[in-house]
Design a protein that fits this description.
The complex is a heterodimer of chains A (169) and B (277).
Chain A: H1 2-19, H2 36-57, H3 59-65, H4 67-79, H5 88-101, H6 108-116, E1 127-132, H7 141-144, E2 154-160, E3 166-168
Antiparallel strand pairs in A: 1-2, 2-3
Chain B: E1 10-14, H1 20-25, E2 32-36, H2 45-57, E3 60-63, H3 77-90, E4 95-98, E5 101-104, E6 107-113, H4 119-135, E7 140-143, H5 158-169, E8 172-176, H6 177-186, H7 191-196, E9 203-208, E10 212-213, E11 218-219, H8 228-240, E12 245-248, H9 257-271
Parallel strand pairs in B: 1-2, 1-12, 2-3, 4-7, 7-8, 8-9, 9-12
Antiparallel strand pairs in B: 5-6, 10-11
C-alpha cells in the first residue's frame, strides 16, 4: 500500500512539473506511459488559462498588442519559469518586464505593461519604486503609442495604504 | 435518501465580478449564487462588503478550486482553515470541491488535474476528505472534472469511481453535466449508461455550460452558450435524480446578461416544470 501511495505521489509530482513546463523527465518517468497528446493538450490548456488571466490583468496592453499579445506571451512562456496559476501576479510582472526589454519598434508597450502590472505587486510588497521612461500617470490610452520614450525618465513610489488602495508620490 | 434534508435552491449562476450590477438588478430571476471560495479568503474591506450584500440577497454556495482533495501530499491546512472561516461566515447548506489535485511535489499548479481512477486515489481522497470534514462540518459535494489525461492504471470507470467515492465518504455529488458529456464523447462511452449507474440520491447540484470542439476533441472552456446535447442530458439527469440546485457557469466570452437569464429560465423549466413562466 505504501509503494502504491509513493507511486501516486511521484506520478502527481511529475505531472505537475510537466504541466507547468518544467523538464520533469527522468529515467523511470511515469509520464512515458501516458498519452503524449493528452499531456500536450493539458499543457496547452494551462498556457491558454495563463494567457487569459494575464490579458485580464493587462487589458490595455492586450488591446493595443492585438494578436501579438498571445504570440509574444507564448514566446515569453517558452523561456520563463512558471510557478502555477496561483503565481499569476509574478508571471504578469515578469511578462511586463520581458516586454519592456524586448527589441521592438513599439518601445512604449513595455512601459504600458509595467504600469498596468503595478496592481500585481500589492500581494508581494507594501512599498516599491518603479522608474518609467516617461511620466505615465493620467495619460489617455491613445497617447501611449506616440510618446518619445527615450527622452525622459520618471520615478514613482507606490505605497499600500491598507487593503489594496495605493498612493503615488 | 441522502439528500432529503437539503433545501431546494433552484437555478442560479456562478458569481463573476463582471456581472455584479446585473446580478443585483435581476435578483428576482436568480435563485442562488455560487462563489469561488478562493476569491473570498482574507477578504479586503470592499470584498467583505460585497459578500455581505450578496448574502443578504441570495443563498450562497462556496465552491473551492484549490483544496486539492486528490493530492497524495495531503491538503494545505492553511487553505482549509480559510475555507472553513468562509463557510462559517456564510452558513451554506453545503459546500463543494473538485475530484482532482492542484498541488503536487511542492508545485501549486492552480489547475484542476484529473486523478487516476484507482483504489489508491480513493484512499488519498478519503484521507483528505476526512481532514476537511473535521474542519468544515457541513455536507460536502464533490464535482467530476473533465478527464483531460487518460491513465493506463485506471481500475474503475467513471460511474463506479464516483459511486465508491461518495459512498465511502458520505458525500454528495456536484454533477457537472457538461464534463460528463465531454468525457463521454472524448473517451467514447454512453453518458446515460454512466448516469444511470450513479447513486441518484447523492446528486445534489448540477453545473452546466456550453463546450466547443477544438478540432480534436470537446473542450470545457466555460465560454459558450449551453449546447443542445447538454440540454438533452440535463433533462435526463433531472428525470433520474432529485436535484436541489443548478448553476450556470461562464468564465470567458461574457455575453449580455440577458442571454444568461434566458438560459436560467430554460433550466428552471426543466427543473421545476410547473413553476416556470
Amino acid at each position: 500500500m505504501r509503494s502504491e501511495h509513493e507511486s501516486l505521489r511521484k506520478l502527481q509530482a511529475e505531472l505537475a512539473r510537466c504541466l507547468i513546463g518544467h523538464d520533469g523527465s527522468s529515467g523511470d518517468c511515469q509520464l512515458q506511459h501516458l498519452d503524449k497528446f493528452d499531456l500536450d493538450r493539458s499543457r496547452e490548456t494551462l498556457l491558454r488559462k495563463r494567457i487569459s488571466q494575464t490579458r485580464a490583468l493587462l487589458p490595455k496592453t492586450a488591446a493595443l498588442l492585438g494578436t501579438d499579445f498571445q504570440k509574444w506571451f507564448r514566446e515569453f512562456a517558452d523561456k520563463h519559469h512558471f510557478n502555477g496559476l496561483h503565481a499569476i501576479s509574478q508571471d504578469t510582472i515578469a511578462f511586463a518586464y520581458w516586454l519592456s526589454v524586448k527589441k521592438t519598434d513599439r518601445l512604449w508597450i513595455g512601459q504600458l505593461a509595467r504600469w498596468e502590472s503595478i496592481d500585481c505587486h500589492w500581494p508581494l510588497a507594501r512599498t516599491f519604486i518603479k522608474f518609467f521612461r516617461f511620466e505615465p500617470i493620467f495619460l489617455p490610452i491613445n497617447v501611449w503609442t506616440t510618446l518619445p520614450c527615450e527622452k525622459s525618465i520618471a520615478g514613482a513610489v507606490f505605497v499600500s495604504m491598507g487593503g489594496f488602495e495605493r498612493s503615488r508620490f | 435518501m441522502w439528500n432529503n434534508n437539503l433545501p431546494e435552491l433552484g437555478v442560479g449562476i456562478g458569481y463573476r465580478d463582471v456581472y455584479r450590477t446585473d446580478i443585483f438588478r435581476n435578483h428576482t430571476q436568480i435563485d442562488f449564487l455560487e462563489i469561488t471560495a478562493d476569491h473570498f479568503f482574507e477578504p479586503r474591506p470592499q470584498t467583505k462588503e460585497l459578500l455581505a450584500l450578496l448574502s443578504d440577497r441570495f443563498p450562497i454556495i462556496p465552491h473551492g478550486l484549490g483544496l486539492s482533495l486528490g493530492s497524495a501530499d495531503g491538503i494545505d491546512h492553511e487553505y482549509l482553515k480559510q475555507f472553513a472561516n468562509l463557510v462559517l461566515l456564510l452558513d451554506p447548506p453545503w459546500w463543494s470541491e473538485h475530484i482532482s489535485f492542484t498541488r503536487a511535489g511542492g508545485i501549486d499548479i492552480g489547475h484542476l488535474t484529473p486523478l487516476p481512477k484507482t483504489r489508491e486515489s480513493l484512499r488519498c481522497l478519503k484521507e483528505n476528505i476526512q481532514v476537511a470534514l473535521e474542519e468544515i462540518r457541513k455536507p460536502l459535494i464533490l464535482e467530476n472534472v473533465t478527464q483531460t489525461i487518460r491513465f493506463p492504471q485506471d481500475t474503475f470507470d467513471e460511474a463506479s469511481f464516483l459511486g465508491e467515492l461518495v459512498d465511502e465518504n458520505d458525500c454528495g455529488l456536484l454533477l457537472d453535466v457538461t464534463n460528463l458529456y465531454i468525457n463521454s464523447v472524448n473517451h467514447r462511452f454512453d453518458p446515460l449508461e454512466i448516469l444511470h449507474r450513479l447513486p441518484a440520491d447523492r446528486i445534489v447540484q448540477l453545473h452546466f455550460v456550453g463546450f466547443h470542439h477544438d478540432g480534436e476533441s470537446l473542450v470545457d472552456s466555460h465560454a459558450h452558450t449551453t449546447n443542445p446535447e447538454i440540454w438533452q442530458l440535463l433533462k435526463e439527469v433531472v428525470r433520474f435524480a432529485s436535484i436541489k440546485g443548478a448553476i450556470l457557469e461562464r468564465d470567458e466570452h461574457f455575453p449580455l446578461f440577458g442571454e444568461l437569464l434566458i438560459e436560467l429560465d430554460r433550466m428552471r423549466s426543466i427543473l421545476q416544470p410547473s413553476e416556470a413562466g
